[in-house]
């Protein structure tokens, strides 16, 4: 576009509003050419108060500094206005107590990036995977105040072009002047050979990854007392931010497939049930990995049942424990989550005798040479279904087998199953058809359920939903006799 005479306020159609609207980034420049004067006609759009005004009568409107009343009409030295909030009754306010509100700024075009450096435009934006060759952006020039830079991706590099501001327009090449950045970009998009780089699409802004609500720095957790140690690592009682009691599982990196841990943690985050241990936070960046959960003060169910308080519990409470674990496992079954290590040691007990299933899904992260039948004591053979122990075939039905063994633990107050037999001997006996005997404190109908959990064919074992219903029914029949 050829350069012309300096546009004036009296130009037909008004060059000023056109440039101010199209090139808002040069407002400082337009203000020098066309100084902003107070309007001398028209009603104020959205005035705001400059000083307090208290109504002197029932008909006037009181305003306070910071109010933004809506203008209705001007009447001499007064403005008829109403509030945008509160009572809507309109009333007159002296114009001397009002000032015109600044207009809302127009949104920036998607190709304009204010406040970014050349390095960030190049490395974090244009060369990111979200952008292809031909992506471009315009940004304020770092070296020349008032000018702009056009940055364009060309294959694996970025080219930068200076856009200079003159008194009567903008130019990238001398002799080609444009009244706005939009028109300059449109011209070079159509005539890209002049700069040897096509302008195909505006740069896609890289969205910063959203802060994971569970991911926290290790410095927020203080480990106070070691609670135990298992296949997956150590468990500590700790404090979160010096005040909240939590349980912290410190993962043994030597034993775990850490490459799969992130996926497993995502699964943990998606599970919400009152019978599952609640995840509070994770520290998964670097090692050791922390999995932070709610603290269950009475510890694991196996140890609790063997202690003085657990040994004193009667049949209704023991059946309640069985019902609660079945409920949590039914939830996992619905979501096709296989626990792989269901046992009383992986059920935690709270102060109110609430039971919650813990460590679900973590067993699959153990390395093959750690979690296998040949490794001896590492795999929990005595709780593991034959098809899982022999062939590593895990399913909700192998969890059902483990639940039957957990029932045996509950009704023997934490006694180890197959006592006196080694893992290998226990597996041999089970494969030949041997099943654990009925504990003395176990009702016959519950032992029937245990035997159903230990069916040789996984398909013949009941679902956890069925187990939950039948145990709840047994518990319901038992309670009236003990009240």
UniProtKB/TrEMBL annotation:
Q: Does the keyword Kinase apply?
A: yes
Q: Does the keyword ATP-binding belong to this entry?
A: yes
Q: What class of enzyme is it?
A: transferase
One GO BP annotation of this record: cell surface receptor protein tyrosine kinase signaling pathway
GO cellular component assignments: plasma membrane
Q: Which UniProt keywords apply?
A: ATP-binding, Kinase, Nucleotide-binding, SH2 domain, Transferase, Tyrosine-protein kinase
Q: Where is this region: Disordered?
A: 83-106
EC number(s) recorded for this UniProt protein = 2.7.10.2
Protein kinase domain residues are 221-478
The residues listed in the UniProt record as binding ATP, with positions renumbered to this chain, are 249
Q: Which GO terms describe its molecular function?
A: ATP binding; non-membrane spanning protein tyrosine kinase activity; signaling receptor binding
Reactions catalysed according to its record: L-tyrosyl-[protein] + ATP = O-phospho-L-tyrosyl-[protein] + ADP + H(+)
Q: Which residues form the SH2 domain?
A: 111-203
Q: Which family does it belong to?
A: Belongs to the protein kinase superfamily. Tyr protein kinase family.
Q: Which PANTHER family match?
A: TYROSINE-PROTEIN KINASE
| Protein's name according to its UniProt entry | Tyrosine-protein kinase
Organism field: Canis lupus familiaris
